[in-house]
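Please review this pair:
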Amino acid sequence: MTLLDAAALAAAAAGTACGDLRFLRVAQREHYLAGETSNFARRWWAGEWENAGLFLLGLAGAAAAAGFPAAALVPGLIAIIAPRRLGLRGRTGHLSWTRRLTTVAGVTVLLEALGGLAGALGDGLGGAVVALGLEAMLTALFVDGGLVATRPFEERLARRFVEQARSRLERVRPMVVAVTGSYGKTTVKGYIAHLIGSYKTTLPSPRSFNNRAGLARTVNEHLGSATEVLVAEMGTYGPGEIAEMCSWMRPEISVMTAIGPAHLERFKTLDNTLKAKSEITETARVVVLNNDDERLARFGTELASQGGKKVLLASGRDPAADVAVVPSSDGLSLFVSGEKVGLVSVGPAERPTAPSNAACAAAVALELGVPAPEVLTRLASLPLPANRLQRYRAEGGYIVYDDTFNSNPTGARLALCRLAEDPEVSSSGRRVLVTPGMVELGPEQAQENEAFAAEAARVVDRLFVVGRTNRAALLSGAAGHVELTTVDRLDQAINWVRANLGPGDAVLYENDLPDHFP
């Protein structure tokens, strides 16, 4: 082995290690879902011509190493520096060496070592450098292999924590209220906790702890012996997940907030989304549905016709619904069974973005025995969920709308309406939109982002397109109608906003993709 050959082997090994760091972080950010790491690798390598060219060059170098081992320098060096813009440490979410990530990393390295050994046994030095060169360019596949290999172990471990949670629930016996929906579930969870907090000792699941592991952790670590109501947010990426959570949490009241294209990339159709989300109703005695959502309205009719459950229809616009919270110029009005309870004064900026969310929460509070007048009073002080259309005034005097969490088409358009109607933006004031667009919308993603940009162009004076994931669709929708600026990172747009906006201006930050997205 020559010195050059040794350098090639070292470069290929170093490139593989760098690739592991990059794509293990992607795996962690994507909740350890096997297949997603390779999916993101494809997006990065194929998303722009520079990365695509480097990827093809790396593969060619690995192939050439069969006859000229020093050629493995090429894929090794490429994997150290590329894909471009996918950093080793990350800006928005660093690699966290948890017990699970360490396990996946160990198995990933073992698979890579076995690949290199197989190459060496097959063709000596040439086989080894070819294997290592390919591994340097294809580390995402090995990370996914590690996820698949460790899944049985993780399932057994998860079942142990679930059994602990089941036992604790049986001892404490809280009333379980479960909330799901394509969007709005975290908001409704917070509203419910607020409306019943003075009447019941309440535990809402923390942050977005909305899967099996998160809810088991909520119960095992946070459920106190005096807890009367547990409000559990439930999310899903496919059928069976919510049914499994309900099998041990046994919610008595279930809430469905909306059915929309969020995660449509995984569900494929909205009918599949409804079917998976509706699993939350199986054990419930009472089901609260957002009647303003067409699919949920039809589902409510079907569910009521089956009997055996109390179905409450909640609305943000129809006073005749079972429970309605209807906005007006004076504030919010609460209706129960078509009868007006009263009105509370709430300023436009403090009102819920989607009144139907408040109506769903009010229905739960009433079902739990909170008097209607008290529910009405507490509607005036609903909490503002973090990063969900929070409005505040920046030091520079301009208005900021922070809607950076988990954007969806319905919420994005509501945010634009708030920006357009803000009374504190002067007639000569500038309205700015900063967005990377919306993701996980499957085949509708390009169309939805293009339509959103076209609508935004009628409201804003300047549009910042962040990143490259939806750049083409956003630029296409807004081209020729608004001043456009493209940036690779959110902080670049923020710096411009801070330097250029002042009193009478406003900015909307709509969504914020973590930096493992291109």
Observations:
- The two ends are 39 Å apart (CA to CA).
- The first strand starts at residue 175 and ends at 180.
